[in-house]
Every structure is written in C-alpha cells, then in structure tokens.
Amino acid sequence: QVQLVESGGGLVQAGGSLRLSCAASGRTFGRSAIGWFRQAPGKERDFVVSISWGGGSTYYADSVKGRFTVSRDNAKNTVYLQMNSLKPEDTAVYYCAARSSSYGGTYIRANEYDYWGQGTQVTVSS
Questions:
Q1: 26 and 50 Cβ atoms separated by less than 8 Å
Q2: Which DSSP symbol is given to 102?
Q3: How confident is the model at residue 72 (pLDDT cuts 50, 70, 90)?
Q4: What is the DSSP letter of 52?
Q5: How far apart are CA 10 and CA 28, in angstroms?
Q6: Minimal CA–CA distance to 68: which of 79, 77, 60, 56?
Q7: Three-state SS string across 27-90, please?
Q8: What average pLDDT does range 23-33 have in this prediction?
Q9: Beta bridge partners of 70
Q10: Residues 82-101: pLDDT tens digits?
Q11: Strand order of the sheet with strand 3-7?
C-alpha cells in the first residue's frame, strides 16, 4: 500500500517556475515507478512524466520535454517535479501516481498505476 500527497501547486505567471512534491508513505515506495499526470477542466487526464523506481529512467511527454524535470529521493520518500518556463496551457490539477510492480521501467498510461494522490492545482496566468 502506498499513500501519496502532492504539494507545491499555486498561481504563477507565464514563464515562471514551480516545484511540485509528491510525498509517499508505504514500504514499497522505493520499488515503485512514479508518474505525474495532469487534468485541465473538461479534458482527460494526460500523462506528464514517469520516473523509474531507482530514478535511472525517465520519460516525458513531448509537451513538457525540456521544461519539466522529475527527480526522486527515496530516502525521503518524495518525488519532485520542477516546472520551468510555464505556459498558460500547463494550467491543470497535477496528480502523482505510483505503480508498485515496476520492474525498473517507466509507464505512461494512467491505468498502469495502482495508487493516486488527491492532486494539486497549478494555474499559469498569461
């Protein structure tokens, strides 16, 4: 079992930065792949980035590549999402998710994840 809590969202101007955190509890966090997804009003939940359990592999959506950076600190049971050069189209609720049986890989589909956080709102003004 893994419990996830996101934080760090807020309101920022276009071009600004935010760092989201995903704090986890549970014994299997260190062996879990973590994904970030986002959902804008009236739209489907979209994949943002995935990081493998050891942090050695990452996979980014094209829309955020070069602007967002994911990292994890397994000693702190936390995954971070550094978001730079934010755009109004990045506005969404951001969710982190954990896949407990990860085998060192990254995963891009929401249904591949077992546990979800409640989400944190990110709003980018133009």
A1: no
A2: -
A3: very high
A4: -
A5: 29
A6: 60
A7: CCHHHCEEEEEEECCCCCEEEEEEECCCCCCEEECCCCCCCEEEEEECCCCEEEEEECCCCHHH
A8: 85
A9: 81
A10: 999 999 999 999 999 999 88
A11: 3-7, 18-25, 78-83, 68-73
